[in-house]
Amino acid sequence: MRTVADYLAEALRNLGVTHVFGIIGKSICPAVLKMVDYGLEFIPGRHESSSGFAASGYALQTGKLGVAFATSGPGGTNLLTAAAHAKANNLPVLFITGHQSIQELGIPQCQDSSSYLADLAEMFRPATLFSKLVERGDHFSTILNHALSIALGPNKGPVHLCLPFDVQTEQLTDFRVVIPEPEPLISVSNLNRILPLLQQSSHPLIIAGKGVTRARAHDELLHFAEHFNIPVITSPGGKGAIAWDHPLYHGPCGVGGFPHADELLNQSDLYIVLGSRLSDMTICNLKPGNHPAHLIQFDADPTFVGKILHAQTLHITGDLKDNLQFFLGTLTEQPVVPRETTAVDYTLPLPDLPRLSLASILEEMSELLPYDHKLFVDDGSHGFHAVQRYKVKKPGSFVFDAYFACMGNAIGMAIGAKTAAPEETIVCITGDGCFMMLGTEINTAVCNNLPVIFIVVNNKQLDMALKGMEKTTGRIDGTLYEVPLDAAKFAESLGAVAFKAETRAEFTSALQTAQKLNQVTVIELLTDRDEIPPTAHRTVTLN
């Protein structure tokens, strides 16, 4: 007979999981130690939320299950933000939290996870696709199979299991895990309705969201756009769905976008939306009278489909890649309606500033990196500068979440991706605000020999909040750091190699050196505090 912890570790190994992320504590010890015994590498984080983000980065990089764990009570509550982030990004992550022994329920205990204090199973329910307290060992097989089928199913996302100490150590005579097999879900009847809509449209437009990268559907996007000669724009999170210099690409729209892409939004009579919720970050510049007549929306999640725009909507559910492949496979050599499309320069001039411009750095940065790299971009004004200016060469190599928008998420995600792809160049752009939240994860990267290159944009303020508040209210309360961060010194104290850059030449030299060193490196980029981020589209009115 073996324990529940034995069977869990074996199941994760059989699923192809190689690394797990978290912070250990008494209530989760049996499960974590068995994971190590079964050959899974344990990456101990410095904060549970970062370990959750790392598991998401691992899942995104591999396409497999990510695993994050924490002890009971506050260890579990610290994972909640990462769970919601994984849900917003459709990333299959198993979050595991500890719990006091079932036999001791009702006794006040340190780091209580029961319904008497912090009920983790209940807390994780809205932040995941499934959350369950496992009260008996003989129930665990059924519950784990159900959780895995949801996490790895058509609408991928996070799940949570809360494992009491005595359940983890309970011995079982039998345990069966069913490894989920991918099952194509194709909307055949609705796919057959696409061609007539394309044929009657005079100004169709493809809006590519982050779902293109999640589904690894970059080739299918290109085939679709080129076959019908349709211009492509990207949502902020969809940046990198297509190479920046493709003749059919007309730039990013919305917050961080260029005016040209927003003009196309307002002129189109048919949107083909690939993996985007059409949030306020994407369609903030769409005028109410310019909604398209028709909308074709590919989205595995029906929550917002047909509810955002005043357009007749055709919903294509299921996996984006599978559906596009099926539709493209049905096309014959019949003539395509000719459309005039020409490559355009959708960019804007760089700002003229007395000090270092972040936009100017980002516009040239991809030239300094190998083609096979992945860039994780944190949330803040620096993120939207990157959406606008970074020139993505390899589709799928740009990762940015403009939807749930957790500050600091890119730090952990970059670490998780590097564990999964040690030979790939992994770069993270973060800000001084994000870095002060979760920058201690630099030490996680150092201790585990994960040479990520971190670029910390330091303008000594919460820049996006400051510029937005200043414009809409005339005030900047709580947005300035009276004692600014010295990111280079902080990074060195955590064991990383560090550089400061106040000029483009200094940054170029630091980035080139970082790639040669193959060590965890932090480049502190001291930029002009007055540079205006491309975020002014989205404003609020305070009454």
TrEMBL record:
Keyword entries, A-Z: Thiamine pyrophosphate
Domain Thiamine pyrophosphate enzyme N-terminal TPP-binding span(s) in chain numbering: 2-107
InterPro entries: DHS-like_NAD/FAD-binding_dom, THDP-binding, Thiamin_PyroP_enz_cen_dom, Thiamin_PyroP_enz_TPP-bd_dom, TPP-bd_CS, TPP_enz, TPP_enzyme_TPP-bd
Domain spans labelled Thiamine pyrophosphate enzyme central: 192-325
A Pfam match: TPP_enzyme_C
UniProt keyword Endoplasmic reticulum, yes or no: no
UniProt keyword annotation of Ligase present: no
Cofactor: thiamine diphosphate
The Thiamine pyrophosphate enzyme TPP-binding domain, residue ranges: 380-524
Gene3D superfamilies, per the entry: 3.40.50.970, TPP-binding domain
Family the entry assigns: Belongs to the TPP enzyme family.
PANTHER family (UniProt xref): ACETOLACTATE SYNTHASE CATALYTIC SUBUNIT, MITOCHONDRIAL, THIAMINE PYROPHOSPHATE ENZYMES
Protein name, per record: Acetolactate synthase-1/2/3 large subunit
Protein source organism: Paenibacillus pabuli
